[in-house]
Design a protein that fits this description.
Helices cover about 30% and strands about 25% of the residues. By secondary structure, it is of the alpha+beta class. Strand 5 and strand 6 form a beta hairpin.
Length: about 190
């Protein structure tokens, strides 16, 4: 009789019946739906914060500047605006190139060869902001016929290298490339 009671009290095991587990309940559905809604709400709240860190269209438009070199006469300096700063594009004379190349590096507070500063010897492209306190130097000024900063007296040569005054380094060089013989792209 004990065997018959044991036989009657045996229930089907899930592995035997092919069931994979308990059926999902309404509580499980609500838990997943609430989690998905929370993830979407977090994304919607964070997206404007991330989006505002990207530069606006006017900033992106200023990130590059194309300059037509064909209208710049030999010896002339053209000033263009790039990223809110002046950039000097100088069409150097043979005399200016020779003087810049022949300058001994030992005479320079911030030694740099002219070849490292000009991609093509006749064209010099520098950011027109004094490296001392951010003033705008004047072209074709000073004893080296380069730039002179009237604010504190820094003097740069025709390669934009600091020669005298309080400026700690040469005029900075922007990134630029020649897109043709008569055009450069700054930025």
């Amino acid at each position: 009789m004990a065997n018959s009671v044991a036989a009657n009290s045996v229930t089907a095991h899930p592995a035997v019946t092919g069931s994979t587990g308990p059926e999902p309940t309404r509580r499980d559905f609500l838990f997943i739906a609430t989690g998905a809604a929370a993830a979407i709400a977090t994304g919607a709240a964070v997206w404007p914060l991330i989006s505002q860190m990207s530069p606006d269209a006017s900033t992106l438009a200023l990130s590059t500047t194309e300059v037509d070199l064909s209208g710049i006469a030999v010896g002339q300096i053209l000033t263009v605006k790039w990223r809110g700063n002046p950039v000097f594009v100088r069409h150097r004379t043979e005399k200016e190139i020779k003087e810049a190349q022949d300058t001994p590096l030992s005479q320079l507070p911030d030694p740099a060869t002219d070849q490292s500063r000009a991609k093509k010897p006749e064209w010099l492209v520098v950011i027109g902001v004094c490296t001392h306190l951010g003033c705008v130097p004047l072209g074709h000024q000073g004893p080296y016929d380069g730039w002179f900063c009237p604010c504190h007296g820094s003097i740069y040569d025709t390669s934009g290298r600091i020669r005298q005054g309080p400026a700690p380094r040469n005029l900075d060089l922007p990134t630029y490339k020649f897109t043709s013989d008569t055009k450069i792209l700054i930025g």
